[in-house]
Design a protein that fits this description.
The protein is of the alpha/beta class. Helices cover 35% and strands 27% of the residues. The protein has 9 helices and 12 strands. The chain has helices spanning 36-50, 70-87, 96-102, 145-149, 162-166, 168-175, 184-187, 191-197, 217-225; strands at residues 2-7, 13-19, 23-30, 60-64, 90-94, 110-116, 121-124, 127-130, 133-136, 141-144, 157-160, 179-181. It is globular and about 50 Å long.
Length: 226
C-alpha cells in the first residue's frame, strides 16, 4: 500500500510518500516563512516526480488534523480531502500530538510533545511506553506551559515539538535536570510519521474534521468585542 501524507499543522510543512512494504519512499519538509497554501501542492508535485509516481498510484491519503495553526490545519485537511475525493481513495486523520510523540524512540522517560500556541502557551499531552507500545496518559490539552508542568517536576520527561524548542529555557527553569530534549531535527513533525501510523486507520471522507482544541484568535477577538 502506498500512502501520501501531509502535515501542515505547525510552521513546518511536510509531505511524504510511504510504502507499507518498504517504508519511506520520499519526503519533503520545509520550515520557511511562506504560507502552506503557497507550498504544499508544489511539495506534493515535486515529491511525486522525484519518486516517479503519480497521484493515481497512491492507495491512501493521510493528514494531520491538529491541534496547531488554525489556517495550516484547514489547508492540509482541505488538500487531502480533495485528493481523496478526486481519486476515490481512503483517508485517515492523525492527531498532531500523537504524531510528534511517535517520533521519539522507546524510552523510560515520559514523553510530552508541545506545539507552540504563543505567549508561553502550548498544546500538549503526555505519553509513555508500556510493553513496547506508546500509550497516551492524558487528554489533549491547551494552556499555560508553566501551569501544566507544575505537578510534573519530579518526573523525567522527554519534550518534543516546536513548543518544546521555543520554550526550552522555560521548561528547564521549571523541570531542572528532569527535562530531556531530542535533536532539533527529530523534534519537528514529519509527514512520514503521519503516514506510518495511519496504516491501520480509516476515516470517513465526509465527516473528517480538523481538531482545534481552542478557538482561533479572530473568534476570541470577536467574542471580546461582543
Amino acid at each position: 500500500m502506498l500512502i501520501l501524507a501531509v502535515d501542515t499543522s505547525t510552521n513546518v510543512g511536510s509531505a511524504a510518500l510511504y510504502s507499507s512494504e518498504t517504508g519511506l519512499v520520499g519526503e519533503v519538509t520545509l520550515n520557511i516563512k511562506r504560507t502552506h497554501s503557497e507550498n504544499i501542492m508544489t511539495a506534493i508535485d515535486d515529491l511525486l516526480k522525484l519518486t516517479e509516481h503519480t497521484i493515481n498510484d497512491v492507495d491512501k491519503f493521510a493528514v494531520s488534523i491538529g491541534p496547531g495553526s488554525f489556517t495550516g490545519i484547514r489547508i492540509g485537511v482541505a488538500v487531502v480531502k480533495g485528493l481523496a475525493y478526486s481519486t476515490g481513495k481512503t483517508i485517515a486523520g492523525i492527531n498532531e500530538l500523537d504524531a510528534i510523540a511517535y517520533g521519539a524512540n522507546e524510552t523510560d522517560c515520559e514523553i510530552i510533545p508541545i506545539i507552540d500556541a504563543r505567549k508561553e502557551r502550548g498544546y500538549y499531552s503526555r505519553y509513555s511506553y508500556e510493553n513496547g507500545k506508546l500509550v497516551r496518559k492524558d487528554e489533549y490539552g491547551v494552556g499555560e506551559i508553566r501551569e501544566y508542568l507544575e505537578d510534573k517536576k519530579d518526573k523525567k520527561i522527554l519534550f518534543l515539538g516546536d513548543g518544546a524548542l521555543k520554550y526550552q529555557n522555560l521548561i528547564k527553569e521549571i523541570m531542572g535536570d528532569n527535562a530531556k530534549f531530542t535533536m532539533k531535527s527529530l523534534s519537528l513533525p514529519k509527514a512520514s510519521v503521519i503516514a506510518e501510523i495511519s496504516e491501520k486507520q480509516e476515516d470517513n471522507l465526509y465527516t473528517l474534521e480538523p481538531f482545534y482544541l481552542s478557538k482561533a484568535q479572530a473568534e476570541r477577538e470577536k467574542e471580546r468585542r461582543a
